[in-house]
What we know:
With 492 residues, chain A is α+β, with helices and mostly antiparallel strands. In chain A, 35% of the residues lie in helices and 28% in strands. The longest helix of chain A is centred in the last third of the chain and has 25 residues. Strand 5 of chain A pairs antiparallel with strand 5 of chain B, so a sheet runs across the interface. Chains A, B: It comes from Algibacter miyuki.
Amino acid sequence: MSKKLTSRAEDYSKWYNELVVKADLAENSAVRGCMVIKPYGYAIWEKMQAQLDKMFKETGHQNAYFPLFVPKSLFEAEEKNAEGFAKECAIVTHYRLQNDPDRPGKLRVDPEAKLEEELIVRPTSEAIIWNTFRGWVQSYRDLPLLINQWANVVRWEMRTRLFLRTAEFLWQEGHTAHETKAEALTEAALMNNVYATFAEEFMAIPVVQGLKTESERFAGADETYCIEALMQDGKALQAGTSHFLGQNFAKAFDVKFANKEGKQDYVWATSWGVSTRLMGALIMTHSDDLGLVLPPSLAPNQVVIVPIYKTDEDLNAITEVANTIMSDLRGKHVTVKFDNRTTHRPGAKFAQHELQGVPLRVAIGARDLANGTVEIARRDTLTKEVVPLSDLTTIIEGLLKEIQDGLFKKALDFRDSHITEVDSFEEFKNILENKTGFISAHWDGTAETEDKIKEITKATIRCIPLEMNKEAGVCVYSGKPSEGRVLFAKAY
Amino acid sequence: MSKKLTSRAEDYSKWYNELVVKADLAENSAVRGCMVIKPYGYAIWEKMQAQLDKMFKETGHQNAYFPLFVPKSLFEAEEKNAEGFAKECAIVTHYRLQNDPDRPGKLRVDPEAKLEEELIVRPTSEAIIWNTFRGWVQSYRDLPLLINQWANVVRWEMRTRLFLRTAEFLWQEGHTAHETKAEALTEAALMNNVYATFAEEFMAIPVVQGLKTESERFAGADETYCIEALMQDGKALQAGTSHFLGQNFAKAFDVKFANKEGKQDYVWATSWGVSTRLMGALIMTHSDDLGLVLPPSLAPNQVVIVPIYKTDEDLNAITEVANTIMSDLRGKHVTVKFDNRTTHRPGAKFAQHELQGVPLRVAIGARDLANGTVEIARRDTLTKEVVPLSDLTTIIEGLLKEIQDGLFKKALDFRDSHITEVDSFEEFKNILENKTGFISAHWDGTAETEDKIKEITKATIRCIPLEMNKEAGVCVYSGKPSEGRVLFAKAY
């Protein structure tokens, strides 16, 4: 298989698919719409998990685990939520296979092993969790309940793409219960902010924080906060959501508490999640025609050392130096790998590490040893320089910081140069045809207008930015009054 | 709900169930046989995961993720494995719900949304993984393939118990592919040894390493290594297994490689796993009538500090001291919590921490402040002493080590005093009626004898110990020749 990727200019979608597979991030499986996350891709996901988990714990949340299955009677209890997920869910109906009398050695579903009640494979866990919370909450002393779960979920999507939209995906889902509406709203906003911080500081992905319009909200939510990112092809990607659920689930599952005055009241809820979809955002924000580009914070190996040698003697001498470099770097919490595989030539190793987005590559040859130097190559700028071995650790620490900051800056510049203020619908349509990105435009606040615009242009309202200027204007489509600009875009 | 547990002597099984629920480890859910793992229980599981994950990575394994579902045609490909799991598996047959015309507002399975091929919710992942490995292995250069997955699996067990046997459980499953039979056998033994080290050094649970008999092997394995532990009630518990799968899955899924001579050959396989069942082993090895007893290595909080105060002034002074203690302890990587809840009295806090197995409790009152002392209580021995505040960190470090070692020693003494060498079947039956534990006896090596003994006594061969003396003898049941003693027991 050729390692060379289709270029982004030629076919962005093909470039993406090829990159995911060739960089060993993920691949399609024998199960329709379900992916296999390969070790290298999973190592990046583990880095994301570790950082998010830390941030959740620092904000007072605890992990727990709830069942994979939701009995149909619980699934349908909160009607809007049920309606939102009913059309794309995997349903377990039987619990046993038997020998197939028509095909010796093969199996069939045992028709007598039918479940009394069907089980839905969780597309999201509000139903099973709120049914459990009923037993956990009696009084205000039990609140707030701040729970998170790392889990797999299944949504039977018809059109799937690796990481971006898969039938099964991995995610975390936070579920919290509060005494008051204000506290729940604060929690929903706080967790959206945690996601924004994570996206910007660790993934180097700039995001707009905002609220979803009613038609784009999570099924069962009263308000949905989101972080929206812009991909290199000018399409937006929803990278995380945090929902204020009001008392909807508390009422559907009868979760009441005795408040400080001794009166029974329904609790207030939030839920929030990010998923392996973030891998797609990561790829489409930073990568180039040579492959993946990783911010150092998420790189499984921040540095790889490649020996260039002809004799065993040279290799031994290089290995000795490499061991010292590795020990120094690890002392500074830099992850580093010595790629001393004898099955691959240096050129092939360079190409692989480029494809897999290793931030820094250090090459050491016999001449370097004599000169007390090494060659260091940056993945982000594709530049190389020869540096003194004695300064290497300091140089690497500086470069990793520079790369992390540089990737964010570059993505931010791209994003900011792809937000266009638009005041007429002609211009709106032109922009979507010619160049893409976010369109900042006035909207009259109605679902009708939103639908019409979507129908005509395929663009949706990505969010009502939290930092929206309350600037009066007229709707770009209907000409009716508007309170401020919202962000439109075509989206993943 | 009373916090007091049924005593072990009164009803061991009831004691176990009550402890799991009252110590906030887990509870039953609305889904038959599936549990909710509560935050405190999950925090212990996270500690196990972190340590095991580290040990897997240190032995060269990488994590990946494979689909939850196994298409039926793949599930049935390895016949013995399929047969072993066919009778207890959850089967997805449909992918959509619709409005139920007979029950307004409710849903039913859409009969038109039937899958062409049924999907089995993985009871174990050999089938889907080996189907994937086919694409990953071409030459000996691609081997060994050393993969691990942290995942949920489902086995539709009819009789379930929290942690010990649940329809859904969490586990890790290692899956490896090798060039040679010898290498795969070494891997299977190595990983069983990793489990034994983990059980003994981190969980403080002594285990016997051994091989399963043919009838107790994993379905599809040529050899199953295991670690067997002994619970306080004298029943054995299989705590982990590691399988040598021969070329069975390679043949079923056509996974071949070009060997060093350029010839095509099937690869050799292993798989190995431990699960949330370990939580059950942990509980039943160390705990007592007051609740959970945790080895410090797995305790979410190794130390809890409880302030004893009457005035806000006292609390402030105690808080200041507690903050210093916490900072010192955290500097030594000791996990510690200051239980300054105002909703609970000290007695209630003591009882809760006892129930939840916190290894060390430090109580600080106003008089302690004046004397420069604190009271420290051990959960394992239930002893208390007053110690100088100035030595506290050193004392705590010493005690944590002492507790960890002491718990293992106690469990080892119990286990060793519950292995009885038996040479007649009368004695064999007597022991199982009177006292329990492992019986070390000669066996003629046949499945017939094994079945007969099980039928008569309910005891099974837990393992053929790796350290078995090759001592010739005669079978305790049949009188036929035997090559050495094996371990029998009733088991969970």
